[in-house]
Predict the 3D structure of the following.
Amino acid sequence: MDLSALLAAERASVDAALDRLLPRADIWPVRLHEAMRYAVFGGGKRLRPILARLACRAAGGNAEQITEAAAALELIHTYSLIHDDLPALDDDSLRRGRATVHVAFDEALAILAGDALLTEAFAVLARFPAGDTFASRRIEACSIVAVAAGSRGMVGGQVEDLEATGTAVDPARLERIHRAKTGALLAASVELGAVLAGASPARREALAAFGRDLGLAFQISDDILDVTGTAATLGKSPGKDAAAGKLTYPAVWGLDAARETLDHLRARLIADAAAIEGPEGTLAAVAEYISRRDR
Amino acid sequence: MDLSALLAAERASVDAALDRLLPRADIWPVRLHEAMRYAVFGGGKRLRPILARLACRAAGGNAEQITEAAAALELIHTYSLIHDDLPALDDDSLRRGRATVHVAFDEALAILAGDALLTEAFAVLARFPAGDTFASRRIEACSIVAVAAGSRGMVGGQVEDLEATGTAVDPARLERIHRAKTGALLAASVELGAVLAGASPARREALAAFGRDLGLAFQISDDILDVTGTAATLGKSPGKDAAAGKLTYPAVWGLDAARETLDHLRARLIADAAAIEGPEGTLAAVAEYISRRDR
């Protein structure tokens, strides 16, 4: 399988859906819609929507039907980045090599553009896929995403990440942060695809478990990259987490142990993917891709 | 009808639902849940949930079945207040006589507590009222609220309110701000009650139109109160909008003309309420109450 061609085609489908879904930048209120589009079309990998589409296919569904709903995940991911970058939180002025929203526009607009993207995501999830067949699945999709993105999921992880910064090494706390902050929405992405495909409870749970492990693998590899990457490969300054005193896998376990954990996770992910979709499927390829970004 | 007894009983039902729905303050992440509860239990009138329940009854529904969904409106209203009060927006340190969230906690937690409340609102709307009968109505409720709270509704109104501050008098702009910033969610509250009651399209539209006018009446009376009220009656400093150069009804039209507009709206609201629920119903009483707060 040519993974990079697959990912490029997937990304193009998701980008087209995002462009259809977001209000045009010349519609009132213009500055807000400009800021929303600036943030969304900033070079993201679209990993969450792509995972939802791949999971949908792995569960026997038609991925083309769920592209809009999958794109809603990217709206939520984007809002979380805008708010994380704010001066009161991580205070980042660069994201993927471009000025962050509060720098390119202003702080008020960054807060409100984030709010609007989060809200729009649920408008999209309530509407797509259209049709009565999908009505009860849409409700379930809203619920899964809201729980994953909420106070006991993504937002909770961000709160604890801020609280833990500069504190003593605490492995249980580190895992809780990672599972909530990044893992919950990645797991929800996989589960969303399964639910919208009408997957059986067993297959849905298998995909959700795969999603949770994938989220953890993603975060560990992100932590490793912060230590080993360069500004050119990362699109942001390396060593930032370490300098800020963030609780990361290399900080808590050391770089070698972090890599070893990632190797174990990768093996399990590939085995689990094979059980779900047969050998050499797209989920295994993506798991491989995500967990080898550090090489 | 004893309106104040009715409103007190309604408020108690809504408060009980909010207490059931919000994670307890001793559940992880503790500080976040503390901040969410601090903001929600800060003495709000619960106007939006109450309107939803009254509209539900007026449309022949059972208001007890929709209390949770109605309470979700209060979660959204509360999030919007937390974010509006932030230093980058209105920079308010007092709200209803208490420290605002970013003062009582900190700015990062205020941003994240707002995010979590908005997200939780959609988790609630996706889940309540429970049962298959309500599944398609829940989806419609999510959609109505998301559109009203989003970039072309509440958030859009807030953006334009900030942009218009200190600019020249512009009546069309003033009305656009008010209809979006306050009107959209109040109108959605009435419509939510109608939709969850399973109202006919005609009755639903009549209730939605009533809600839009009610939202405008609410905002005009709020603008007037900022000019005529005292710190004791308002729970915040009067004259703040005028001092900040905000576009308000009294600023654009003068105090007398603002009161006259409010009188016209009140008469229309009471006539429309009578057409919906018969004479001397609760919607008319609430319209009277809202539009007479300035006396």
In short: The radius of gyration of chain A is 18 Å. Chain A touches chain B through 52 residues (CB under 8 Å).
